Amino acid sequence: MTSFPHTTNAFLFDLDGTLTDTVYQHVLAWKEALDEEGIALSVWRIHRKIGMSGGLFTNMLLRETGLAVDPDLLDRLRRRHAEAYRRLSTGVVPLPGARDLLEALTGMGIPWAIATSGRMETARPALEKLGVDPGRAPVVTRGEVQYAKPDPDLFLAAAARIGVDIASAFVVGDSIWDMIAAQRARALGIGLLSGGYGREELERSGALRVYEDPADMLKHLDEVGGRR
Questions:
Q1: Is 228's pLDDT higher than 70?
Q2: pLDDT of 198-224, one tens digit each?
Q3: How far is CA 202 from the centre of its chain?
Q4: Superfamily per CATH, domain 23-91
């Protein structure tokens, strides 16, 4: 791990909907998993919870349907979601400017990491399409922390992985759960519209700046300390 001065800016990225266009594949995969268990839930309700940890996500979904929280059912839902997502992820692509943004930060010597509430089994296809090797690049997944978003653990672990002070880091995400986790971690939040949440929602949840997608963020990188 390279250690950077505590005043160094750093960027901690969510993955789905932030760097890769994968939010709706996850939504449909959860919908399929729920349907297979005979649990009726509208697609829009599922979308509003994408970005949470899978465990919290399924707990909240079951609460909305009035079903008891059954550990066996939760495990089946997680496995069904992972299986469905693997099939749907063949069409996964990076969001516009995602590769260029990471390359620009690397070229400027600005540290970055990816922190996803997904487990590696579902994150790997997206990382591969993004050109990020988790064996070489700093990637933190759900299995490495006790709690995922909206808890701050993922982003705290990502900052520690690259040796920066979380207070000097920007958390970049597409959901309100990313922004809430950023605030709880004492980091500044940057919201992207590429996951389907609105500008006002992201700002109300703590986003300091909101951009359309990684390409738009790259154009305005100097606004958030992204400069040599």
A1: no
A2: 999 999 999 999 999 999 999 999 999
A3: 14
A4: Putative phosphatase; domain 2 (1.10.150.240)
